[in-house]
Amino acid sequence: MNFNKYINGIVIVATGFVVASCASRGNDTGVEYAPQMYHSVPYEGLSQIKDKEAGRWLTSQEGGDAEFYTSNPNNPNEMNMREAVPNTVRRGEALPYRIPKDSLELAARTLKNPLDSSAAVVAEGKVLFGRYCLHCHGDSGLGDGLVGQVFKGVTPYNSRAVKDKPEGHIFHVITAGKGRMGSHASQVSVDDRWKIVRFVQTLQNQ
Predict the structure, then answer these.
(1) Distances (CA, A) of 165 to 109, 119, 172
(2) Rounded distance, CA 168 to CA 95, Å?
(3) What's the predicted TM-score (pTM) here?
(4) Which of 34, 41, 61, 163 is the most buried (most CB within 10 A)?
(5) For 28-69, how does the pLDDT look when each residue is reduced to its tens digit (9 = 90+)?
(6) Phi/psi at 159 (nearest 5 deg)?
(7) Lowest-confidence range among 21-25, 76-80, 163-167, 192-196?
(8) 141 exposed, middle or buried (CB, 10 Å; 0-12, 13-18, 19+)?
């Protein structure tokens, strides 16, 4: 009986020792179950292990770097990720808009809408107009939205001063703002701005 208690005591102490030895401390992640599920063989952009002997105990092949080494020796400081070249544009995004805010004439003269004036594009523009513009400009672009009724002076789209403005002018105003209207570039994507332009052009001709 005493012998069994002695064995049980040894088992408990040994188990506690094993559990404690697996715990992580500081930069030591401890012993991991199925470590290949945590340590990727390819380069990981947000992970970098520079110790070429890390995970040697797990490495099956002879020679070469150990299992957990993930740094790129061809980059400075063995970095896996490098900063993009200055002025790089993320794939799928438009080039940065460079026309200054006060260059309305330049925008009007040079900018052309890349989207056609099909019913589908105009319909999408109408939805976006209702989301971003209607509160000031109103349903018909007469400047009688709920906000426009309080803050007077929103120019109707069919007025002589606005009705003949080209698409580049409209796009630039949405992008950079004009007068009391602020820039909508951070809220509305480039494509969506051009869709709104198509719908606004239908209101200019009312």
Answers:
(1) 10, 21, 11
(2) 16
(3) 0.58
(4) 163
(5) 666 667 766 766 667 777 778 888 888 777 776 677 788 788
(6) -75, 160
(7) 21-25
(8) buried
- Residue 62 CB neighbour total at 10 angstroms: 5
**Strand partners of residue 25:** 28
The token pair that represents 95 in the structure block: 């080039």
Tokens at residue 125, please?
């523009």
Say which residue the tokens 């939805």 belong to.
Answer: 127
Q: Residue 200 and residue 194: Cα distance in Å, rounded?
A: 10
Residue 76's identity, in one-letter code, is P
- What is the tens place of the pLDDT at every residue in 162-175? 888 999 999 999 99
**CA proximity to 167, closest of 128, 119, 110, 206:** 110
Helices (H) and strands (E) in the chain, counts: 7, 0
CA distances from 144 to 126, 165, 204 (A): 16, 20, 15
Alpha helices in the chain (DSSP H): 2-22, 104-110, 119-132, 134-137, 146-150, 167-176, 190-204
